[in-house]
Amino acid sequence: MREGIAIAGTVAVDEIKKVRKYPNSSELATIQRVSRSIGGAVSNCAVGLAKMDHELPIEVIALVGKDEKGLFIQDQLATFSNINTKQVHATGVTPFTDVIQDLTDHSRTFFTYRGNSHLFNENTIDFKSLQANLLHIAYILLLDSLDQVDDEYGTKMAKVLKQAQEAGIKTSIDIVSESGNRYSQIVPPSLAYTNYCVVNELEAGKTVGIELRDQQGNLKINELRKVLVRLKELGVQDWVVIHTPEGSFGFDGLHVHSIPSLAIEQAHIQGTVGAGDAYVSGVLYGALKGMELPQAMELGTAAAASSLLAEDSTSGIKPIEQLMNMYQQYAKRETIEI
């Protein structure tokens, strides 16, 4: 009997550097504080889920480097007894990200070295030994080998997702946020073999060619329903969810749901690295446990909010009961009707 979740794809080390204010070109900025944490979807989601539920079976499928950063990642994952790392293999150089956090507005700028991520390909996952009933793969647009064209399925990523579904495993995808116009070509083939698509507003909008923020950065509320429906039409079989700082918006094929974000005071926000992965983890946990979409979105909202209370990706995430209480007890932003 299949049980739990497998998380495959991008793993990295986050080198977090806090500056008073992000500099303009050619200007100097003094680093106020330096810290290190695990990063990337695999590390963030695996550890986040392990902290939510220490009995949940979690399988990690990733490539770490044969270097000090790779050992750091493996040591961090090994601290959780319910994380299975049998499909973590050492090769090449560990990816890392310099995360520059502006202390003025808590915005983040990322400088990523992809390292061995291009080596993660269609043969990396051993489906015969996989025990999970849900496979989450991230990120599309960052795993170069899986972004390659496949004559039958559109992309290699789509082929892997199809293999998972044929093995009786539900699938979930995430996308990396980047500038450029690759979304509409590379993302849609995978959606035809995706059960759960949980992405932010930039990724969702670029995938279907509809911008979800105006030039002033305001959320284009009237376009949200259209984007949700369009993503579902591209083949997502169960849930489409778009998460934003203002709130999250979901579509299960029958109903559209709007869940407000928690109103965390700015003074309490220690960092925003990994909030998106925390949100995804909460929603996928809800899916695994048979929750309805709105309840899963509430859990994702609380997980994302809790991650803001620590400067790294996962330290702030709490057990599932505390997260559910957190959503009920904290003040919320105004619900956005779409």
Brief characterization of the structure:
Helices cover 30% and strands 26% of the residues.
Write up what this structure looks like.
With 338 residues, the chain is of the alpha/beta class. The protein is built from ten helices and 15 strands. A nine-stranded mixed beta sheet has the order 5-4-1-8-11-12-13-14-15, sandwiched between helices. The model has no long low-confidence stretch (mean pLDDT 94).
Characteristic key phrases:
single chain; 338 residues; alpha/beta; UDP-N-acetylmuramoyl-L-alanine:D-glutamate ligase; nine-stranded mixed sheet; four-stranded mixed sheet; 10 helices; 15 strands; 26% strand
State the strand order across the main sheet. Answer: 5-4-1-8-11-12-13-14-15
Radius of gyration: 19 Å
Topology order in helix (H) and strand (E) letters = EEEHEHEEEEEEHEHHEHHEEEHHH
CATH architecture heading: 3-Layer(aba) Sandwich
- By CATH, the superfamily comes out as Ribokinase
Major pleated sheet: 9 strands, mixed
CATH class: Alpha Beta
CATH topology: UDP-N-acetylmuramoyl-L-alanine:D-glutamate ligase
Helix content: 25-40%
Number of strands: 15
**Structural class determined from secondary elements:** alpha/beta
Give the rounded overall mean pLDDT.
Answer: 94
For the record, the count of structural domains works out to 1
Count of DSSP-assigned helices: 10
- Share in β-strands: 25-35%
Q: Termini, distance in Å?
A: 40 Å
Which parts are unreliable, with pLDDT below 50 for 5 consecutive residues or more?
A: none
User: What gross morphology would you assign?
Assistant: globular
